Inverse folding.
């Protein structure tokens, strides 16, 4: 979502941090460039002005200009101001006598029904709430059936459909059913329109009066840019908005809505929709989002993603095997599947501090690439081998490689790359088994230089490179010490 803005800000900060000292003119030029970058990202002009009003007096002050690393000081000031503009994290309000009603509002096409199911799943799985979903959308054909199907797929109860009822009456019936059924939360999925007309607003106000929801959540499509901010202002004028859920945050929009909506409306962002699936919901955290925008990564997000996807038993078994220096092609396939579940190598690198630029460089290098499709092809290659070939890759002669390539829909060159990847990983594991981590790091050579590599190797996209950034060592995708410190994954 913020790729262009991140690139533009990164270039500005690179120019600043390369200078040993900064003049007031240097800072003013950088602030002008930051202003242009924010406007290009479709951030509302009032929000940009307010942002610069906060940054300018601090950035041109003596504290920055006379500091040891003025460029880094400016980056920190911009980061702090960005967090302020995004607003504080606001938890969802459920501290009322059950059942608590959450009213989902928004225009048609914003993803309201799917977002209702996402939030219901989150409340059940993450907070242990018993949830009832009810569709109040009497306008859109099959809207009620859509929510019903989502409920069946998620095993979350939905209010039975009664044809001909008005939305306000359905809301009353839902609250009554929730009280009788001992539900903690009622999700009210309201109707939308192509625009915020008077009929829609009157219906929303009537539903709010009848259900008395503890949360009125606006679902806004982040790809609509400033229009999402305008829609939020229109709804805020007629109903008591308590939070915003921005959908399609995984898209290629410019991100202006996320950076503007709190400043313009005063309504906090509470959730981000980061994909179509019902588990693709993220609690909004301004500091972590600001870090991602400025290319500082999100290591907490990385660990959380690992904890949600790693099978602890498999990880422990593989870690034990690796300590003995063992690493088979099946182990490699499991690593590839794990990386795929975590969003691909490019997705993981985007969450690692300092890896933003390398992620972009990596995505442009090598035929194998770093995307989800590449990981699937690599896993398919291993799946197309016989058990004997997986146990002993030396059996893979030219004819066998052709068979594997045909079976996996790939080429012999790709099969060779996977075999090379496995050899490198197996060599790393042998070093780890013989001499521990110290021997492993020594075996990687001087390319580490005490930190991250400045240039990615030509074989980018191959798993051994992940060892250089601390990944791929535990069999579960993250170093064991990191998982231990931040909470080990739950066993599935």
């Amino acid at each position: 979502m913020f790729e262009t803005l991140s690139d533009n800000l990164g270039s500005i900060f690179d120019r600043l941090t390369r200078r040993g000292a900064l003049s007031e003119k240097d800072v003013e030029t950088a602030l002008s460039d930051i202003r242009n970058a924010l406007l290009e990202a479709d951030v509302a002009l009032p929000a940009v002005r307010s942002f610069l009003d906060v940054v300018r007096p601090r950035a041109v002050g003596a504290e920055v200009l006379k500091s040891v690393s003025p460029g880094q000081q400016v980056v920190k000031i911009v980061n702090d101001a960005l967090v302020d503009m995004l607003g504080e994290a606001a938890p969802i309000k459920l501290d009322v006598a059950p059942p608590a009603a959450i009213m989902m509002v928004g225009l048609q096409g914003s993803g309201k029904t799917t977002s209702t199911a996402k939030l219901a799943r989150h409340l059940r799985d993450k907070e242990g709430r018993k949830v009832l979903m009810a569709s109040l959308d009497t306008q859109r054909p099959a809207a009620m059936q859509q929510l019903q199907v989502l409920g069946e797929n998620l095993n979350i109860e939905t209010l039975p459909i009664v044809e001909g009822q008005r939305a306000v009456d359905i809301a009353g019936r839902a609250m009554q059913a929730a009280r009788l059924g001992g539900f903690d939360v009622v999700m009210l999925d309201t109707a939308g329109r192509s625009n915020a007309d008077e009929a829609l607003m009157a219906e929303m106000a009537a539903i709010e009066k009848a259900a008395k929801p503890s949360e009125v959540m606006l679902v806004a499509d982040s790809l609509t840019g400033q229009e999402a901010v305008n829609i939020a202002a229109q709804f805020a004028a007629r109903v008591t908005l308590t939070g915003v859920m921005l959908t399609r945050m995984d898209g290629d929009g410019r991100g202006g809505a996320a950076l503007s909506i709190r400043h313009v409306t005063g309504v906090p962002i509470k959730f981000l929709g980061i994909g179509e699936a019902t588990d693709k919901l993220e609690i909004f955290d301004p500091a972590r989002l600001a870090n991602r925008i400025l290319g500082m990564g999100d290591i907490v997000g990385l660990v959380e993603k690992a904890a949600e996807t790693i099978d602890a038993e498999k990880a422990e078994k593989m870690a034990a095997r690796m300590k003995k220096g063992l690493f088979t092609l099946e182990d490699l396939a499991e690593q590839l599947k794990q990386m795929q579940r975590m969003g691909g190598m490019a997705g993981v690198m985007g969450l690692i501090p300092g890896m933003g630029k390398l992620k972009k460089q990596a995505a442009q290098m090598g035929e194998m690439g770093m995307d989800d499709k590449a990981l699937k092809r690599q896993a398919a290659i291993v799946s197309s081998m016989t058990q004997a070939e997986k146990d002993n890759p030396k059996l893979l002669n030219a004819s066998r490689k052709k068979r594997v390539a045909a079976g996996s829909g790939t080429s012999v060159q790709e099969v060779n790359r996977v075999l090379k990847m496995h050899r490198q990983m197996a060599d790393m594991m042998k070093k780890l088994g013989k001499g521990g981590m110290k021997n492993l790091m020594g075996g990687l050579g001087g390319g580490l230089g005490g930190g991250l590599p400045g240039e990615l190797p030509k074989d980018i996209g191959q798993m051994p490179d992940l060892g250089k950034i601390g990944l791929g060592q535990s069999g579960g995708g993250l170093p064991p010490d990191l998982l231990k410190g931040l909470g080990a994954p739950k066993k599935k």
